[in-house]
Amino acid sequence: VGCDRSKNLVDICAEKHFQAFVCDALSVPIRSGSCDACISIAVIHHFSTAERRLATIRELARLLRPGGTALIYVWAMEQEYKNQKSKYLKEKNGSKNKEKEMNTGTAQRPLSDQGPDNSSQDSAWSDQLLNGLKDESCGAKPVADFRLPVHTNRTSFHSQDLLVPWHLKGGTKKKEESVDTVLVPGGSKESQELSPVFHRYYHVFCEGELEAACRSLDCVRVQKSYYDQGNWCVILEKL
């Protein structure tokens, strides 16, 4: 059984005859202790406070039966680890074919949250205010003027809290939506058109941060903590 905050993604699951429903990760409408295993991939890094991120892990643990396990993946601040670049960084120079696929609507990546799209947008500053942001660990630069930096895709992270551009390929925006627009290259000047750009909030995790949050809960035990292609990962067991 799957769940997601996005109704459109859940509808895709229904079309493929999978069981899925719309819900909030902070309040999953499933009975406590009823799951053998739970998987949370690229979800928790979208919550903007440490308290909400911890509450999400606690909710995940609530669903598990005693002895049940959970797998959690979040984006890592460290996109270069043990002298190895992550797949995310390596794709920077080899993404032309992916861009072509995305523009023709054949690529699967825009539906995935394993990495942002192949934008070449320059780094900028968002006008969105971030209250109470004081985390300067991992050697990250403090956020100037309490504004969230907009990440330049396929580059290393310079802040733990940031916005990642999402270019809507071939989509239409509703009048009530307030989004940025960017000129998308399309060969000739006549074929160029404006495409809406959405900004997704991320809190990228430093080494040990996810594991420490999990260990602060007395209802679970950390079985394994590891790094995988630009993600920090933890396997939990319900006590």
Automatic annotation (TrEMBL):
Compositional bias per record (Basic and acidic residues), positions renumbered to this chain: 87-102
Domain Methyltransferase type: 1-72
Domain of life: Eukaryota
Keywords: Methyltransferase, Transferase
Organism the protein comes from: Chaetorhynchus papuensis
Single GO biological process annotation from the record: tRNA wobble uridine modification
UniProt-annotated stretches for the region Disordered: 87-125
Biased composition (Polar residues): 104-125
GO CC terms, sorted: cytoplasm; nucleus
Signal peptide coordinates: none
Protein name: ALKB8 protein
InterPro entries, per the entry: AlkB_tRNA_MeTrf/Diox (IPR051422), Methyltransf_11 (IPR013216), SAM-dependent_MTases_sf (IPR029063)
GO terms, molecular function: S-adenosylmethionine-dependent methyltransferase activity; tRNA (5-carboxymethyluridine(34)-5-O)-methyltransferase activity; tRNA binding
